[in-house]
Amino acid sequence: MSKTVFFDIDGTIWDDDMVIPESTLEAVAALKANGHLAFICTGRARASVRSEKLLNMGFDGIIAACGNYIEMDGKVIYENDLSADMVQKVIRVLSECKMPVVLEGSTDYWIDDEGFEDDPYVDYLFESLGEHAHIIRGYDGEIRINKFSADVIDGTDYERVKAEFADDFLILEHVENVVEFVPKGTSKATGIKWLCNHLDIPLDETYAIGDSVNDLEMLESVGHGIAMGNSMPPVKEIAEYVTSDISDDGVKNALKHYGLI
């Protein structure tokens, strides 16, 4: 019987240098050859899922922006945008609180031009997104986003930011003072459940592989939650199975463990 597997990107499919292990390429190809479905399920908004090597791996679709965007066979089948009023509030409050922000949409990103001087990820965004990356300051067009991320820097009034947005967003604190804001009631798990309902896929026939705090609900919601060996401790604690590190054939070993390849 066909199974469905959901893959996180960062720390799962590729490493910190965005290198996909050869064993992962081979494992996903074998999974597909065996008749199973494979989906990307990422916290990244769709606009930053652009790598041709990644997109050419044969995935059936993409759940992006922590469940707030879903596409299958290249067609958008679900999207949840923040309201225009909320976008303006985010820009205003984070500017007042000196917390540089990245607004993440399905086609474009909007990025603060101050405060990210020591963040190489922002340099990567401008380079990889090209004309689809915009500076927030002075931008007067429509801004359509699914979520946003921001950095805590010297002088940030983070307590006020949390107080302003705690009712509307799940606030996920990552390493190196990076904070992710996901609309409350949405997650990778809600994206998976929506897609499974849409395709009539039983949840107990699903698998997910991840490594970070925004993967916790995803791993708990599927039939079989798998943590990479390089996962953060809370992820390993709730996983059904912990595979090896990404650099040690983690994805391949996980799929072999469950007899999917």
From TrEMBL:
One Gene Ontology cellular component: cytosol
Domain of life of the native organism: Bacteria
Keyword Hydrolase attributed: yes
InterPro entries in the record: Cof, HAD-like_sf, HAD-SF_hydro_IIB, HAD_sf
SUPFAM superfamilies the record matches: HAD-like
Protein's UniProt keywords contain Hydrolase: yes
Alphabetized GO MF terms: magnesium ion binding; phosphatase activity
Pfam name, any one: Hydrolase_3
Keywords: Hydrolase
PANTHER family: PHOSPHATASE YKRA-RELATED, PHOSPHOSERINE PHOSPHATASE
Name of the featured protein: Cof-type HAD-IIB family hydrolase
Organism per entry: Agathobacter rectalis
